[in-house]
Amino acid sequence: MANARIKICGISTPDTLDAVLAARAEYVGFNFFPPSPRHVDMAAAAALAARAGSTIGKVGVFVDPDDSLLREAVAAGRLDAIQLHGEEAPERCAALRSRFGLPVWKVIPVSNAADVARADAYRAAADLILFDAKTPKDATLPGGLGLRFDWSLLAGLRMALPWGLAGGLSAANVRDAIEATGAPLVDTSSGVESAPGIKDSDKIAGFCAAVRA
């Protein structure tokens, strides 16, 4: 089985970006949701994108964004994909894909099998589905809380679209997650942090090594 592709999300500093590049992850995520401790402004995104160059896929993470925010972020971050982490309907995803000419990754929050089935509605509207743990109703953030869901919900999954797994992944459990789900892509954020929003270069290296072990 080929190694899963790796996305390290919520990168906000040059040194942690360098760690992601050194660990040879396939994607880096820039968070454009201001309430998040991983948020980057347009100037920071532009500097990080210039540093990353074309050696890694740059994914912008958004929560129910308006078009003006997307336009600014796509240009500043030189984005290769748009990840939508809010309540975006299939019609909205399809419209943004058409408008910006970029692949759309739609996050599906999961707590049960019915949530997994919701992904089917996006088969003509998104380019990749990212299954993440559903956050509690009172949570202020839609992700990045280190929560995981029951991976057996994805066992034997047959998807019309490429897909990935997120939610509480770390170097300690990512191999088990891949073996349980067959995930072709894994995405981590809090799992490579020493504190919320503070990425740890050694944890980034360890996570990527564990995926490839």
From TrEMBL:
Boundaries of every N-(5'phosphoribosyl) anthranilate isomerase (PRAI) domain copy: 6-208
Q: Which UniProt keywords apply?
A: Amino-acid biosynthesis, Aromatic amino acid biosynthesis, Isomerase, Tryptophan biosynthesis
Q: What is this protein called?
A: N-(5'-phosphoribosyl)anthranilate isomerase
The family this protein is said to belong to = Belongs to the TrpF family.
This chain's source organism reads Qipengyuania mesophila
Q: From the UniProt record, list the reaction(s) this protein catalyses.
A: N-(5-phospho-beta-D-ribosyl)anthranilate = 1-(2-carboxyphenylamino)-1-deoxy-D-ribulose 5-phosphate
HAMAP family listed in its UniProt record:
PRAI
Pathway, per UniProt? Amino-acid biosynthesis; L-tryptophan biosynthesis; L-tryptophan from chorismate: step 3/5
Check the record and name the Pfam families matching this protein: PRAI
The domain of life is: Bacteria
Keyword Translocase (UniProt): no
Enzyme Commission no: 5.3.1.24
Top enzyme class, one word, equals: isomerase
Which GO MF terms are attached to this record?
phosphoribosylanthranilate isomerase activity
> PANTHER family attached here?
N-(5'-PHOSPHORIBOSYL)ANTHRANILATE ISOMERASE
Instruction: Respond yes or no to whether keyword Lipid metabolism is given for this record.
Output: no
